[in-house]
Amino acid sequence: MVKTKEELLSILSHFPLEGKAISAEPFGNGHINDTLKVTTGNGEAKYILQRINHHIFTNVDMLQQNIHIVTRHIRRKLEERGETDIDRKVLTFLSADDNKLYYFDGENYWRVCLMIPRSKSYEEVTPEKSFEAGLAFGDFQSMLADIPEGTLGETIPNFHNMEFRLQQFRDAVEADPVGRLAGVKGLVDEIEERAKGMCIQEMLYREGRLRKRVNHCDTKVNNILFDEAGKVLCVIDLDTVMPGFVLSDIGDFIRTGANTGAEDDKDLDNVGVNMPIFEAYTEGYMEKAKSFLTSLEISMLPYGGRLLTYMQTVRFFTDYINGDTYYKIHYPEHNLVRTKAQFKLLLSLEDHAAEMDNFMEQWL
Ligand code: ADP
Ligand code: GN1
Ligand code: MG
Q1: Does position 116 have pLDDT exceeding 80, yes or no?
Q2: Which of 55, 116, 124, 237 to mutate to test the pocket of ligand 1 (most atoms within 8 A of CB)?
Q3: Is this model's pTM higher than 0.85 or not?
Q4: Alpha-carbon dihedral angle through residues 264, 269, 271, 277, given to the nearest 10 degrees
Q5: Of these four, 32, 62, 273, 364, which has the most CB atoms within 10 Å of its CB?
Q6: 47 dihedral zone (left: phi>0; alpha: psi -120 to 50; beta)
Q7: Distance (Å) from CA 82 to ligand 2 centroid
Q8: What spacing in Å lies between the alpha carbon of 239 and ligand 3's midpoint?
């Protein structure tokens, strides 16, 4: 982040904060936006300031409009249910000057939301938290299920379209812009061997057998805020909420939560599927989602874990071959380390596929 404290405070002056902002410090572990925790005069962290990555989210108006629709919709649902403490259960964004949903400083786009008090995000979960997370994302999807088609835009077109991601990968392999291909040919073959089997959703959609729904599309563990007692408070990071295939929202949680290692683990022996986490998430998720899922979708949920892990392998690998232009990296080979760790997780998910399919039988 290249902004000085004074510059950040000046950006914040365009939002109607309660109290005077005195500092804005980096916060969280996101790969895309820059997130800062804003402290006001009384020493309390009250707001989250985010610089939107407009190279990735190129249509900021659509992005913020989507988020506005989604948060308003969820708030209304929570009110109808008679929930209490709603400000900790849905994000609240502040309007900037001119009632806009962001502030543009001539170079960057900024947004501010309330920091959810006494909340915490995790990079790893227990089975108890995983069950809670399943309930939360299942409920999230079910609350948004009645948003009419066409209301939300695709903030990143083709975001979870596997055919499109493979095309980007093949373009990178073909161009080899920074000469990294020679060292990774074996892995390219592994990706290609699985390619056709990983594009089943797009095929079923064309055949009219699979529909699109509103999904979160980034159901990583750290996109959920928990309270002090380990209960889910709020689903956050709403940039990618858009129409897509339902497997996204189980797949990315399995990929991030049900991994015994880290997303970028250098020690591949650490990486593998954690079955109790998978089972707990699926139980929570199915409790909320079984009423609207088709039996085809239910039977495909374990495939969703493999698909999203494969997709992430392909995306990190593409970025590595392209010379690290998309994801923030912390050291030169970071994207290759991420690729190998995700691929190892995929192998483990493949080994556990039958066991996971058996687990789904109770809902079929
Ligand atoms: P990114 O798109 O970069 O992943 P996120 O919106 O997920 O950004 O924010 C990054 C981290 O900041 C989250 O994982 C969470 O720990 C924290 N965070 C974000 N918004 C809030 C909030 N409203 N209240 C409390 N913590 C938050
Ligand atoms: C990005 O911003 P973050 O860390 O929540 C990415 C996801 C990837 C993830 C991999 C807009 O999410 O799609 O799965 O990194 N978000 C975007 O960790 O590309
Ligand atoms: Mg995030």
Answers
A1: yes
A2: 237
A3: yes
A4: -140
A5: 273
A6: beta
A7: 33
A8: 9
